Amino acid sequence: MIKTFEEARTLIRELQICTIFESEKSGLPSLWEHVDLPEKQEGEKGWGEKVTAVWDWKNRLPATFPDEIFYAKIKGGFAVLMTMDYLRHTHFPVAYKPVSQLNSLAGHVFEKIRNEPWETTELRKEIIAAQSCSKSQFDTALKNLQISLNVVRSNDPAIERDTWLTFQELYPEIWELHVTTD
Q1: What is the pLDDT of residue 46?
Q2: Least C-beta-crowded within 10 Å: which of 19, 32, 145, 173?
Q3: Which residues have CB under 8 Å from 124's CB, separation 6+?
Q4: CB < 8 Å & 24+ apart, contacts of 137-145
Q5: 153 — alpha (psi -120 to 50), left (phi > 0) or beta?
Q6: Mean of the per-residue pLDDT values for the chain?
């Protein structure tokens, strides 16, 4: 059981991949189940110590150790942390799908992100207005772009809101290792 940020880093290195929160459907271990911090107590304000730590670590681990830990969404929409070695050698080869294999809405979202980084709220507003889609349709398109490893969340610790970049831009060495262009 872990209690500290550094122990969370060690755990991710040991597990190679884990979900952020527990889910039997994922078939993976979770960071949540390994954290030994108190949950929210009755009458306590806020999230409680355990949720606060896990939520912080899911962003801070990849931001602090960008060459070591990767945040992603996997099939089923589960948020995970994985080692870069696991991403490079195991996950990317099976999870990557070209944008052309996704729906047209995902293609429009990708084109916006390909041209410049976008924060989720502003990108959602722009796409909903331009494509006449629902919030749910936009969210699904963005999730599918993450699952297929076409877009990734920025690891820049100075950026507070989820901001999206292309996978190829942030991880060109992994992209070039696996994706050939004709």
Answers
A1: 65
A2: 173
A3: 135, 138, 139, 142
A4: 137/105, 138/105, 138/109, 141/102, 141/103, 141/105, 141/106, 141/108, 141/109, 142/106, 142/109, 143/73, 143/77, 144/102, 144/103, 144/106, 145/99, 145/102, 145/106, 145/109, 145/110, 145/113
A5: beta
A6: 93
Where does 35-171 have alpha helices with state H? 49-64, 84-86, 92-95, 104-115, 120-131, 135-147, 167-170
Q: What is the mean pLDDT of residues 141-156?
A: 96
CB 175 within 8 A of CB 167: yes
What is the spatial distance between Cα 117 and Cα 166, in angstroms, rounded to a whole number?
8
The candidate with the shortest Cα–Cα distance to 119, out of 156, 163, 72, 78, is 163
Cβ–Cβ < 8 Å for 123, 106? no
Q: Which are the contacts of 181, defined by CB distance < 8 A and separation ≥ 6?
A: none
